Amino acid sequence: MRLNKLNQSKWQVNKMRDLTETIRRRYNRIAPMYNSMDTMIKPIWRKELLADAKGKVLEVGVGTGANLSHYPPGVEITGIDFSPRMLAYAKEQLVNLSQNIQLEQMDAQHLAFSDHSFDTVVSTCVFCSVPDPIQGLREIHRVLKPTGHLLMIEHMLSDNPVLAFALHMLNPVTVRISGANVNRKTIQNLQIAGFYIADVKMLAFKDIVRRIDAVPHL
């Protein structure tokens, strides 16, 4: 019985590793056209979200760097992404920015930072594609200071049954094309990962696109 459990656990780890690699390849492939595809988040939403960023900031899934020019002065930014090609495009923006910004290739599911390292963590349309979103959110919870905030703009499964059904039907197509899931239960995933939802604002498509401010449970 114990051997079966070990084999099952090893199989799950290998499956998750393979899935992560598949999604990495997809984002490497679409990196040159990503900026023209990334139209879901309005610039004003980015600016309003990032106005609340303070101190040492970790941006998870920095992508091609669409958020970088919207950060307020005085913050220290570390941006990570698991796609080296996406990061290459983000690095091109640093020439025109005066912010203190470091970019690193890293998987959100395995953050190479000490506990309680950041005052703010930011993600914008990232947790639709993290293979194990709860593990990624638990890692954020670990590296976020007890007084810190997780600031998110994410699309997720609607609470409306009709919209939810449509998203479930659409999901295999979006996953196949880009690795993005459109039926993630992000609010529930945050709670499972140990976060308290301090504030939610509906942004678009009724309740599909939401701005979230979450804080750690201790």
Instruction: Output the CATH homologous superfamily.
Output: Vaccinia Virus protein VP39
> What is the mean predicted local confidence, pLDDT?
88
**Number of domain units:** 1
| CATH class designation | Alpha Beta
What percent of the residues sit in helical stretches (DSSP H or I)?
A: 25-40%
- Number of E-state strands: 7
Give the helices and strands as they follow along the chain.
HHHEEHEEHEHHEE
Structural class: alpha/beta
The Rg value, from CA coordinates, equals 17 Å
Oligomeric state, counting identical vs distinct chains: single chain
> What separation lies between the terminal Cα atoms?
35 Å
Q: Please work out how many helical segments DSSP would assign.
A: 7
- Shape from CA axes? globular
Uncertain residue ranges: none
Named CATH topology = Rossmann fold
Which CATH architecture is right? 3-Layer(aba) Sandwich
Q: Can you characterise this structure?
A:
With about 220 residues, this protein is α/β, with parallel strands linked by helices. It has a single domain (about 1-215), classed as Vaccinia Virus protein VP39 (Rossmann fold). It has seven helices and seven strands. It has a seven-stranded mixed sheet with strand order 3-2-1-4-5-7-6, with helices on both faces. Helix 5 (about 135-145) links the parallel strand 4 and strand 5 (about 145-155). The longest helix has 29 residues, at about 1-30. It is globular and about 45 Å long.
Secondary structure elements and their pairing?
Blueprint: H1 2-30, H2 34-37, H3 43-50, E1 56-60, E2 76-81, H4 84-93, E3 100-105, E4 118-124, H5 133-143, E5 144-155, H6 161-178, H7 186-192, E6 195-204, E7 209-216
Parallel strand pairs: 1-2, 1-4, 2-3, 4-5
Antiparallel strand pairs: 5-7, 6-7
